């Protein structure tokens, strides 16, 4: 007997624009926070206890915010806007000032990826000025580490993710391109390790589970494809799931590696079991494209939330599959 | 000289015995000395004791058994209240008094005992006789009785005596129950007695087998008569449940047993043959066992042949499919019996194809005949099939036509399945019939009959050994199963981790359409009329219902036009749920703008160039609309509930504004004491019935044109499907019009209308008619019923009684009974009211 379809536990309104990106910061500090970036250039900092926007910062001259993230707990905020700027904000002690900014030169939608290499230093990967170019710089020194350009014509860089494998010496980078290809780069060697054609359409989003070296990507068609990297760092395509309606704007894996959420263009968030990609639930609430999903990083697994941001200017929060969570 | 001496000698012991017995009687009547009594009883015993130490000669004993035993027992029973009887010790009484009943010829003892049970008054004496009877049964004296008749040692008795004895044996439970009432012994209950009788018969048969092997002749007439009489009295189930399995096992390897069984059944009198056979085919498991027990009885015995080939297959349709399998398998199993199978197949196929049978016999019987037909076809060999091919083909074509013509869905399905099976079995130029029908339990059961049961079903051995052996074998296997499962799941438990997450209901997940649905009714109409885009048409059709109800004024402007469009709409794009969506929209239109739309629909019902489907649609829409109108309008919602409904997320407990109010209210309710009795809630608010004022618009136009035959629509000819629906719908209108002022007129008109079709051949029409009559009696005020219909009521009653008795359709019969009850109730109420009025005035 299947349970009836779930409904959101609450919603956040008043962002005043489509919600391009969401980011939870719940593990440290006393108030759980949710950052959201809107299409009107505002970054909201939602207090999840009061369910109100605690702070609103505008730093991208009104152009759309495509990505937000935090560094060092929630002290430093990173945001990327369509004004080709990546800004670092100091949020400590109630401040909200731009500490630093980097000009990416990219007019695309590709979200940045950040990787902490040692305390205090981190790598920032972003799409560069040229069509297929990915640049990686070191922060806070802003020294360029490398520029990765594929040999073949693959179209724009659509999404990237940077990670440090347990075995290898240097960080690796996964990138999805406009023609549907996925490329695995070695950052220190500045060389392409492998390539796979995952989709016939542009890769809209990808996410990677570093624990089991398995990732999944979504496209503008009605398939999401999972793949994994083997010891020789070869990309191998695995199973595909066909969705009822085409278009996925974001994918997110929960911290415990059990759930996968997809933000669909069909106004719905879909939940899958991450191991076998078994469809588990369809979350229907939004009335327009869902643009972003995020799982919270609560330490207590029972408090974990799923947030979905939509073009209809609302964020819905869901509490799903938290009962059976015995292993965090 | 020699002759006279031998006569003298033979006379002498007879007289001697008579004298001795008379002397004994005298002593027993007059003596008061216990010792005398005991010696006398011993003397009587001596005539029964066999063996060397016996004091009497064998001639004397035979004479006593022949002529004096019954007399003695009768004397004892009639003197049961004698003074000396209580003075004997219990052991003496058991040995001397009771023992007499258990020793001599059992048939005489049984007769005397049963007479005693019948005559004695309730009391200790009766209890005594009853306990002796119990002992008599427990000691297996019944088997001795039957066996004595097998050996024909029993005196050549008169037929009357034999008849009485049979009656006593067979009816013993009835006799004792009538006499003893609640004090009846458990052994005399049918559930115990008849199995006992069955085992005693088996014992007698076993002794017969043994005797035959030893070369003695036996007669089974009496056992056969007993069996027949038990069966005809309706105890065949109990008796044969014991006998059939045992016989089936014994006849397996033993030819003597088989011969004994055959002889037994041959000897069953003709008039009881049927009940024995019907009991037997139900009790045996499988055609082989039946064949071993009855042999070729069907060939030698006319009565048996008639029962097996005709009654069991064509007339008595109450048996399970298993019985059919047994009977037909039995006919097919032997070369000599196969002609019978072919004969049966001929008559079955004729019965199946008979068009009047399709119309006039009960559905269950038709199903039964279909099953039998399929089974016998599956049993045919290919060569035989070739012979019968033309006949079968004839039967198939004719029968399918009459089945498919029927208006009952189950009959049509039956025709389709049988047609498919026959055609696939006959293999006509490698073509097969294939129908589209929904598989249900019935069709699956029919289809499964074509696949023969593989292998003989294992016969249930009556010995317990098997089950004892089987049970320990099973237990380890059941223990194995979970452990295997465990070992299966363990290695890949990691992979299974998705399964612990139970999926939510995802049925609401649907494909998104690119088009947005129309927001105005006129756009909707426009699209439905002119658009060729399937998606837009579908969306428009889906929202039409809601739009009509939302904007009543807009709907009234275009109601008839939209109805026309919807009525003529075809499912061009094979939408899912097209019919229901279209129907919902039309119902909404009829409800919103009742009079013009009903006028339009009812006039179209009788006009040219509509398909049957469209006419049925009209009727359905009208019926649904009338139903909706007659329901009280949906009550206004509680404001607090509507607030809760408006919040677009299901609220978390704790933040729900209704929640605390609810809690507080509940608390107040629980603390408040109400001193009033009865309903605490205010009664439901009265709202006007929206149907009553317009009922006539639904009803009368449909009655006005029915007898005008048209080229394309012949209501009273071939289109009886529509006629049935029409009458049913009219009945529904009538039913919904209860309490409406117009109901009386409607009732009169409806009764008039249905009168001409009350004996229609189609059962759907008849059901409709009876439903209409029911609703007339339900809805018409009783005073009108008596005043307006007084002259028709009598005829109606006779007709209803006739239907209730003789209609082949079960629904028709029950509906007729229901209408009779309703009519009586209504009339009674009216007459009582009149009486009350007259006494008041």
How many β-strand stretches of chain A? 28
Question: What is the CATH domain class of the largest domain in chain A?
Answer: Mainly Beta
Low-confidence stretches of chain A: none
Assembly state here? heterodimer
What's the structural domain tally of chain A?
2
SS content category of chain A: mainly beta
SS element count, helices of chain B: 40
Percent in strands of chain A: over 45%
Domain Telomere length regulation protein conserved (chain B): 518-626
Subcellular location (chain B): Cytoplasm; Membrane; Nucleus
GO molecular function, one term (chain B): Hsp90 protein binding
Main location (chain B): cytoplasm
Describe the fold and architecture:
The complex is a heterodimer of chains A (328) and B (841). Chain A is mostly beta strands. Chain A has strands spanning 10-12, 19-25, 33-38, 42-47, 52-58, 65-71, 76-81, 85-90, 97-103, 113-118, 121-127, 134-139, 143-148, 157-163, 172-177, 181-186, 191-197, 203-209, 214-219, 223-229, 235-242, 248-253, 259-264, 268-273, 279-284, 290-295, 306-310, 315-318. Chain A folds into two domains: 11-103 and 288-320, 7 Propeller (Methylamine Dehydrogenase, Chain H); 107-242, Methylamine Dehydrogenase, Chain H (7 Propeller), CATH 2.130.10.10. Chain A contains no helices and 28 strands. In chain A, the strands form seven sheets. Chain A has a four-stranded antiparallel sheet with strand order 1-28-27-26, with no helix packed on it. Chain A has a four-stranded antiparallel sheet with strand order 2-3-4-5, with no helix packed on it. Chain A is globular, with a radius of gyration of 19 Å. Mean pLDDT of chain B is 82; it is low at 1-9, 457-496 and 635-657. Chain B is 72% helix and 0% strand. In chain B, helix 15 crosses helix 18 (321-333), helix 21 (363-379) packs parallel to helix 23 and helix 34 (695-704) packs parallel to helix 36. Chain B has helices at residues 2-30, 34-46, 58-78, 84-87, 90-103, 106-119, 124-138, 141-151, 159-170, 172-180, 190-213, 221-253, 255-267, 270-283, 287-294, 297-300, 302-315, 321-333, 338-353, 355-360, 363-379, 382-405, 409-426, 441-448, 465-489, 521-530, 534-550, 552-568, 578-592, 594-605, 612-630, 639-646, 657-671, 695-704, 720-736, 743-755, 763-779, 782-788, 790-806, 810-840. Classes of the chains: A mainly beta (328), B mainly alpha (841). The A-B interface holds A 2-11, 244-245, 258-259, 266-268, 273-276, 278-282, 284-285, 316, 321, 324 and B 494-495, 497-506, 508-512, 648-650, 652.
């Amino acid at each position: 007997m299947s349970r009836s379809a779930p409904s959101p536990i609450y919603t956040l309104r008043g962002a005043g624009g489509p919600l391009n990106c969401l980011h939870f910061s719940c593990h440290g500090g006393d108030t759980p926070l949710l950052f959201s970036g809107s299409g009107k250039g505002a970054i909201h900092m939602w207090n999840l206890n009061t369910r109100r926007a605690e702070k609103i910062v505008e730093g991208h001259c009104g152009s759309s915010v495509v990505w937000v993230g935090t560094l060092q707990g929630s002290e430093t905020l990173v945001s990327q806007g369509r004004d080709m700027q990546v800004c670092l904000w100091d949020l400590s002690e109630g401040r909200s000032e731009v500490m630093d900014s980097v000009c990416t030169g990219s007019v695309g939608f590709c979200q940045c990826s950040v990787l902490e290499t040692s305390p205090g230093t981190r790598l920032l990967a972003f799409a560069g000025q040229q069509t297929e170019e990915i640049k990686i710089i070191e922060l806070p020194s802003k020294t360029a580490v490398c520029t990765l350009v594929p040999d073949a014509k693959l179209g724009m860089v659509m999404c990237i993710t940077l990670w440090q494998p347990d075995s290898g010496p240097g960080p690796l980078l996964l990138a999805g391109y406009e023609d549907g290809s996925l490329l695995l780069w070695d950052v220190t060697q500045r060389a392409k390790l492998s390539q796979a054609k995952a989709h016939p359409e542009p890769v809209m989003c990808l996410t990677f589970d570093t624990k089991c070296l398995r990732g999944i990507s979504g496209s503008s068609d009605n398939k999401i494809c999972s793949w994994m990297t083997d010891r020789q760092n070869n990309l191998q395509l695995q199973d595909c799931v066909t969705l009822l309606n085409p278009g996925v704007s974001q994918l997110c894996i929960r911290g415990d590696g059990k759930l996968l959420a997809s933000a669909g263009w069909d106004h719905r968030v879909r939940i899958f079991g991450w191991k076998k990609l078994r469809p588990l639930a369809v979350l229907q609430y939004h009335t327009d494209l869902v643009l972003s999903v995020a799982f919270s990083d609560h330490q207590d697994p029972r408090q974990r939330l799923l947030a979905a941001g939509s073009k209809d200017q609302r964020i819905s929060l869901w509490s799903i599959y938290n009962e059976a969570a015995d292993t965090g | 000289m020699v002759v006279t001496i031998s006569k003298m000698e033979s006379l002498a012991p007879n007289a001697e015995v008579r004298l001795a017995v008379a002397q004994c009687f005298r002593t027993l009547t007059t003596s008061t000395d216990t010792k005398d009594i005991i010696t006398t009883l011993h003397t009587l015993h001596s005539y029964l004791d066999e063996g060397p130490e016996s004091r009497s000669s064998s001639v004397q004993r035979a004479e006593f058994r022949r002529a004096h035993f019954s007399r003695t027992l009768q004397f004892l029973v009639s003197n049961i209240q004698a003074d000396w009887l209580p003075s004997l010790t219990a052991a003496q009484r058991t040995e001397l008094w009771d023992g007499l009943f258990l020793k001599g010829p059992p048939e005489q003892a049984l007769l005397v005992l049963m007479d005693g049970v019948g005559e004695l008054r309730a009391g200790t004496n009766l209890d005594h006789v009853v306990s002796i009877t119990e002992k008599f049964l427990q000691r297996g004296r019944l088997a001795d009785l039957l066996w004595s008749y097998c050996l024909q040692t029993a005196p050549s008795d008169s037929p009357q005596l034999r008849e009485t004895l049979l009656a006593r044996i067979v009816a013993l439970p009835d006799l004792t129950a009538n006499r003893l009432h609640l004090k009846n012994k458990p052994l005399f209950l049918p559930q115990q007695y008849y199995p006992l009788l069955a085992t005693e018969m088996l014992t007698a048969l076993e002794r017969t087998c043994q005797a035959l092997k030893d070369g003695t002749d036996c007669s089974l007439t009496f056992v056969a008569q007993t069996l027949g009489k038990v069966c005809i009295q309706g105890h065949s189930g109990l008796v044969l449940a014991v006998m059939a399995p045992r016989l089936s096992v014994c006849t397996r390897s033993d030819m003597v047993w088989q011969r004994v069984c055959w002889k037994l059944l041959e000897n069953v009198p003709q008039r009881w043959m049927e009940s024995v056979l019907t009991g037997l085919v139900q009790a045996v498991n499988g055609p082989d066992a039946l064949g071993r027990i009855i042999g070729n009885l069907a060939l030698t015995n006319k009565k048996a042949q008639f029962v097996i080939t005709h009654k069991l297959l064509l007339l008595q349709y109450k048996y399970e499919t298993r019985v059919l399998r047994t009977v037909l398998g039995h006919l097919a199993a032997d070369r000599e019996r196969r002609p019978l199978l072919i004969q049966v197949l001929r008559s079955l196929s004729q019965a199946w194809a008979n068009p009047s049978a399709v119309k006039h016999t009960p559905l269950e019987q038709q199903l039964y005949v279909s099953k039998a037909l399929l089974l016998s076809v599956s049993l045919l060999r290919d060569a035989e099939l070739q012979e019968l091919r033309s006949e079968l083909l004839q039967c198939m074509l004719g029968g399918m036509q009459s089945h498919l013509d029927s208006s009952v869905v189950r009959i049509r399905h039956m025709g389709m399945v049988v047609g498919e099976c026959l055609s696939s079995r006959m293999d006509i130029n490698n073509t097969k019939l294939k129908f589209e029908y929904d598989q249900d339990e019935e069709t699956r059961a029919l289809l499964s009959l074509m696949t023969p049961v593989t292998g003989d079903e294992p016969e249930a051995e009556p010995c317990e050994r098997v089950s004892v052996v089987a049970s320990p074998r099973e237990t380890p296997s059941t223990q194995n199963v979970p452990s295997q499962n465990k070992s299966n799941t363990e290695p890949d438990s990691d992979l299974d981790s998705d399964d612990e997450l139970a999926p939510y209901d995802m049925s609401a997940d649907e494909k998104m359409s690119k088009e947005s649905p129309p927001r105005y009714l006129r756009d909707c109409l426009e699209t439905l009329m002119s658009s060729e885009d399937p998606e837009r048409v579908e969306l428009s059709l889906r929202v039409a219902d809601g739009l009509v109800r939302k904007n009543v004024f807009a709907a009234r402007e275009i109601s008839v036009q939209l109805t026309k469009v919807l009525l003529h709409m075809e499912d061009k794009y094979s939408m899912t749920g097209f019919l229901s969506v279209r129907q919902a929209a039309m119902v909404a239109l009829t409800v919103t703008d009742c009079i013009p739309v009903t006028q339009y629909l009812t006039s179209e019902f009788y006009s040219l160039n509509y398909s049957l489907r469209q006419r049925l649609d009209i009727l359905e829409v009208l019926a649904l609309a009338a139903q909706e109108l007659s329901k009280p309008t949906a009550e206004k919602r509680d404001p607090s509930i509507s607030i809760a409904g408006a919040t677009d997320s299901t609220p978390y407990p704790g933040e729900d504004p209704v929640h605390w109010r609810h809690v507080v209210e509940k608390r107040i309710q629980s603390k408040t004491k109400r001193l009033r009795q009865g309903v605490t809630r205010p009664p439901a608010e009265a709202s006007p019935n929206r149907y009553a004022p317009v009922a006539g618009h639904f009803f009368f136009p449909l009655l006005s044109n029915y007898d005008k035959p048209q080229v394309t629509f012949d209501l009273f000819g071939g289109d009886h499907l529509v006629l049935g629906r029409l009458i049913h719908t009219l009945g529904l209108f009538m039913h919904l019009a209860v309490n409406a002022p117009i109901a009386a007129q409607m009732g009169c008109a409806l009764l008039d209308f249905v009168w001409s079709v009350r004996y229609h051949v189609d059962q759907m029409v008849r059901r409709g008619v009876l439903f209409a009559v029911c609703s007339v009696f339900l809805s018409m005020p009783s005073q009108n019923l008596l005043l307006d219909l007084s002259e028709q009521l009598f005829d109606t009653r006779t007709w209803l009684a006739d239907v209730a008795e003789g209609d082949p359709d079960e629904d028709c019969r029950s509906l007729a009974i229901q209408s009779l009850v309703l009519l009586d109730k209504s009339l009674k109420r009216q007459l009582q009211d009149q009486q009350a009025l007259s006494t008041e005035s």
